[in-house]
Predict the structure.
Amino acid sequence: MVQPATALDAATPGPVIAARNLDLTFATNDGPVHALRDVNLTIDKGEFVSFIGPSGCGKTTLLRVIAALEHPTGGTITVNGMTPDAARIQRAYGYVFQAAGLYPWRSIEKNIKLPLEIMGFDRAEQDRRVRDVLALVDLEGFGKKFPWQLSGGMQQRASIARALAFDADILLMDEPFGALDEIVRDHLNEQLLTLWARTGKTIGFVTHSIPEAVYLSTKIVVMSPRPGRITDIIESDLPRARPLDIRDTPEFLAIAHRVREGLRAGHAYED
Amino acid sequence: MSAALTDGPARASWALTGLMRGVLPVLSVLMAIIAIWYGASMMMNRAWTLDQMQRQNIDMTPIEIIAAAMTQERPVLPAPHQVAAEIWNTTIGEPIMRERRGQMQGNPRNLIFHAYHTLWPTILGFAIGGFLGVLLAVGIVHSRAMDMSVMPWAIASQTIPILAIAPIIVVVVSNLPALNAAVDQGWISDDTKLLVPKALISSYLSFFPVVVGMVAGLRSPQASDLDLMRTYSASRSQTFWKLRLPAAVPFLFTSLKVSIAAALVGTIVAELPTGARFGLGARLLTGSYYGQTIQIWSALFMAAICAAALVMILGALERVVLKRMGARA
């Protein structure tokens, strides 16, 4: 069995996210469901961390715990050295959901302004930031459009722009490209890496695609279900600049292989 | 053949088919209704004509019988053309204002005058009911206590026959000291005072659809839409103004359209048991006192026209608002 806790011991000063012995049990009508058990994880500034695993392994739940959308029933977790709730109030992270979740009655521009309005930025600052993030996700000129006038990939980019608008240091993404076709997905993965390199943000990224996880990440967290737990944490030694065809190199395939092994090991627990 | 040559006629014929496709079904349904109506009116009025024929001991050909059955003064079921003529005569054919006791007043022979007296309380009642409905819905969505306590009462209120409590409301409201004081002070006229109980009864019927529709609308945002607000640490009021309320707008318009029709029914019902002198309800009542079936039917049609117009105005408003909110054209 892999001991994920050992990977944590190299204590870097002030990790962005640190989880220790994290437990989360949901009470349901069919009895308690162990969504997370004994999760230990450290994420440092500027890392791109993927959470991968089959459905029900708790990867989304873990991301939601980091975002303070769920609260653990045991263990500790800190975000920027404070509780997730406190971090959220300090606008520590932007969250991108699986569905773009743009409000249909707002134009793209207005959707990106939504967090800015809530957080009380002044008008001029709002306009400046909308311009900046639209450029960052390659959507200049689409600000006045309504969501339904954009393709699925463009909508997801707009939703990323919305998460970037208030300039949080952490970007949490829950299967943001899961509903898109492979070609669009490749393209967006490439763009996301560019964006990451340009902004230096810490990114937590949930996926169930092995190539996507390996292509994007500096660290891959492999999880398995019932109870949701971490089975392996893989530090990727791929260079940070990654053209799409890096996916055919032996190094890439070796990491992908290890991820697959980790996923298989997780399944061995099932009867 | 060149495109330019075919374009004109092709487009014209396409437009014609489009028109036919839209208008033809409506027209055929209308024709069918009128045909059935004529048939029914013929069958129901014939007895009286035959009876008259016998009493006066005259002979009539079938054609004459049909003609007589269609032109009775107080038919059991007036023929469409009689109703149409009555509506024409009491709208275009009558002045809206007339002189009486040296001053200009509304003319009670004019149907538009009566429609006006029904429409104002309807619109006022609709405004009160709509506002109240939205307010209750907001409370219900935000407070569990209100959800459990208000909704059953709102439903119960609609099971009470409005015809039974309308006179009570009229008596109570007409004797409200505050209202009488307002009349004495000259703040409102006597006519306006009469309008108040009608508007209240109308709002009683019209608030309910708005409550139901708005509660559904305010609860329509998905879990992920609400989660997004939580990630911004948005306050309850921010979530309300920026998410719940805009999400509820399509629901609001749907229920407003139901509500305004109910408001009109409410006003007419309020006029029935209270001996109102003006209004479509009053017109219905006098029609039934004197067996003026044509007058009853023309008042009914006027009410239907008013309801259709009100709903259409709301529909137009809905299109404008939803278009501004990014709805697909």
User: Anything to note?
Assistant: Chain B has twelve helices and two strands.
